[in-house]
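User: Can you help me understand a structure? I only have the sequence.
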Amino acid sequence: MRAYDELMAFDRQTQALGQIAGRLGWDQETMMPRGAAQQRGEEMAAIEAVLHARRSDPRVGEWLEKAEPETDVEKAQLREIRRSYDRARKVPEALATKLAQLTSEAQGKWAAARADEDWFAFAPVLDEVVALKREEGAALADGGDIYDAMLQDYEPGTAAAQISEIFDAMRPRLVALRAAILEKPEPAGLSGTFPAGKQMKLTRHLAKTFGYDMGRGRVDKAVHPFSSGSGADVRITTRTAEDDPFNCFYSTIHEVGHAAYEQGVDPAYQLTALGRGVSMGVHESQSRIYENQIGRGAAFTSYLFDQVTETFGDIGVADAQAFYAAVNRVRNGYIRTEADEVQYNLHIMLRYDLERALMAGDLQVADLEAAWNDRFAADFGYAVDKPSNGCLQDVHWSVGLFGYFPTYSLGNVYAGCLYQALRAALPDLDAQLSEGVTENATGWLRVNLQRHGGLYEPREVIEQASGVAPSEGPLLDYLEAKFTQLYDL
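Assistant: Let's start by predicting it. Here is the structure, written out as tokens:
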């Protein structure tokens, strides 16, 4: 056999085991008994030990040296396998295993502390996670910047300096737009009670409307919505609040964007290094363009208005235009996942700065809650009222995802570029969306981006699909045009 073929056969098994580990994580967040947390931590540690051993196996290095790629796809496969191999060799197996066990247990402690509004119950285990992540980051950085090394797990080729430059360009225009909007009267929201069962029935309809293949997926409920898996098994979760159906509907559409990316990857790449989204920023571009530019646009919300009134009856708004305004209300709020498009990235900037300080050792976990609350008051103008609305609201740090948060805003930036190209390619898009027909929009994304999986580097695939180098300009122009019209600025 060619060295390349031997390597691919070995890696296919590694990829399959990685999918199994992901399924354990999905189960933990959806239906695992609470009493199983410690055992699940040991199970996750055991499978991580196997995965780490395979990813750092010396044979992988030998195959990489001998492999002679014959196509661009083979070159890309080797690039991604080499990236994984180099990373695995830098992190000791004992550290990788310990992190897997600790973060599995920490996730359960975070959920309990969040439910009990008890930051101090969570802080000690987070302190342990931060210490281990600093150790891992130092191993990966090999003398370089720890946070930059961590970013490579989520957005290969990106450095904190690039992200900071984008954020510095975004902040003034976002702050100015928010200030102008908040001087205007707030549109009315929905009123009434929205039973969870009816929400779930309609949200599954919305998932299918956006192209989610339920034959290769499922929709469940979790504390924090997420998407899991790739290829033939891609699952999503959502959540319900009986006074706010938008939480359910737009969480679902958002996660469908992630899932559609995974389901849309060329089947030839299944269970290979290319068989998944190339980065979290590109992944987020799909979830955000599904949720915001398409799902919160005037055309699609006119269709959604009919669906919601048919399901729930009187919802407190009279027509599709009022419903569109309600969907896009800009208002004070604590929760990142519920934030409007104008303020969302300001929530990300807060987390980005805090986690960089944590990894650099400039901020200690003992001081994190106070630092969060002070920064939030400075940025948003009001005080955090309880831990679940502050530094306990997100699951990410409990599971060690440092370097992940900025990819949400990168995804928004990428989505702005993609939407500009999508509008040019489909001039009758609004007419289609007003009828609930998304297949041309989602099909354009599938052909131009999703099917490639990990074939191209992150910025490369965005530039190839959108025709422009990624920048914050198209996103900011879109936001200013949309909300200027909505709020008559």
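Now, to help you interpret it: The mean pLDDT is 96. The chain has two domains: 3-144, 160-487. Let me know which part you'd like to focus on.
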